[in-house]
């Protein structure tokens, strides 16, 4: 994994280079060091750009209100704040004692940042504060390494944390160090994805290495399981709801198989019963069952289920003689008559 962050313009097709590179190796300095002419037994150490992470970048979040700002989390135990157009590191936060994997800006408070680390602590801090205040940032301890963090867009003083042991915790940012408001034993393996809908209050999705995505209703702090779906993309690493009105129930999930799966969660009868989707059972008549059946198919070979069904049907059908195998009188042609003669000779030879 790289120490640099590449920013690409998706409005331009077939770009050869990113529009901005944050941190990473300083190629000019590295080339200069390699060209000294001195023989080195060991491979030359890479020269990093000023302000760069010194280890892999594990998480990022683009600022919702100031579009030129990105926060990054790294295995070097730090969080960095970047000015993208200037390709410059503005702040380096070192308030965690282990790898930092999750980071998210507050939805309304421009300077407030939420982070989660392998030191089993979630932290909320003001990036305008001094370095001494960053060390004293508010922290909330959890049961295991933190995989993901997210603010509740409808209760902006609350945030959720997912962990390596499959749990999800909800905390109040105003109550530093206190226990969770509620805990969900969401998955049997690491809960790697955490998504709260920005359009539907209380709609939570969790994704896991157990290859499933689960839906929950957390309105009013009362947790209710809604539905789950096994995925065809291997272990699930991330999930996110669409933010546009009219598509608020569309969920995207990414997994180990390098695939992205799109799930219209409103196709679930349980979701329609729990949330105001504006959809009826007739809108999804036959769709849900078809999708779930497809997801649950397992085979030992590489053939699709449709192919196997076709093959079995073909095997049941009696073999029909092709038109070219018949002579003008409708009798079997020479090729079939010769085959029968050969069979008779074989039988006589056995006798």
Outline the fold blueprint.
Layout: E1 5-7, E2 20-22, H1 27-34, E3 57-62, E4 69-74, E5 79-83, E6 88-93, E7 100-105, E8 112-117, E9 121-126, H2 131-135, E10 138-141, E11 146-152, E12 155-163, E13 167-172, E14 182-185, E15 191-196, E16 203-208, E17 212-217, E18 224-230, E19 236-241, E20 250-255, E21 260-264, H3 269-274, H4 287-296, H5 305-316, H6 334-350
Antiparallel strand pairs: 1-2, 3-4, 4-5, 5-6, 7-8, 8-9, 9-10, 11-12, 12-13, 13-14, 15-16, 16-17, 17-18, 19-20, 20-21
Structure report:
The chain is of the alpha+beta class and about 350 residues long. It is about 15% helix and about 35% strand. It has six helices and 21 strands. A four-stranded antiparallel sheet has the order 3-4-5-6. It has a four-stranded antiparallel sheet with strand order 7-8-9-10, with no helix packed on it. A hairpin with a 6-residue loop joins strand 7 and strand 8 (about 110-115). The chain is globular and about 65 Å long. About 30% of the residues are buried.
Short note summarizing the structure:
The chain is α+β, with helices and mostly antiparallel strands. The protein contains 6 helices and 21 strands.
Sketch the topology as an H/E string, one letter per element: EEHEEEEEEEHEEEEEEEEEEEEHHHH
- Write out the strand line-up for the largest beta sheet, numbering strands in chain order: 3-4-5-6
The number of E-state strands comes to 21
Look at the structure and give the mean pLDDT: 81
Number of helices: 6
Distance between the termini: 73 Å
Sheet/helix structural class: alpha+beta
The biggest beta sheet is recorded as: 4 strands, antiparallel
* Low-pLDDT sequence parts: 289-351
Helix content: 10-25%
The global form is globular
> How large is the radius of gyration?
30 Å
The share of residues in extended strands comes to: 25-35%
